[in-house]
Amino acid sequence: MKFSEARLGRIFILRLEDGEDLHGILERFAEEMRIETGAVLALGGAADGSRLVVGPEDIKASPINPMKRILNGVNEISGVGTLVRDEKGKAVLHMHVAAGRGDSTAAGCTRAGVNIWQVAEIVVFELVGSGALRKFEEDTGFVLLDFE
Length: 148
Prior knowledge:
By secondary structure, the protein is mostly beta strands. It has one domain: CATH 3.30.1330.80. The protein has one helix at 22-32, and strands at residues 7-17, 37-46, 51-56, 66-70, 75-85, 91-101, 104-109, 116-128, 132-137, 142-147.
């Protein structure tokens, strides 16, 4: 285990609009607001055709080949994530959501493309002084959380 301590900085409340890209807009927001590290809460609607990464096809493959699930119809979503800069200083969101419509549910990472249906409410908690950053790990092909 690796860990770091942080202090709570600014807190932002966002309203995302119909058709906006959840992943892209949160990374751009972090860039614009100069958020180095943050925690994210989200709830709202995901548009028909949004995609989630729902696991690896083969748990022993290297690099990992992700499985994707396309959401059919509008789904209710709730999720949590982290915003952490990579080695080049770019804000990178890692967020997982639970998505549901009727009796169907799915959970996964939003990096495959979740577009908002109508509205999503987001809270971003800036975490200051953690020394957190994302580093590329060749074995997995992931940009993973680490600390300076």
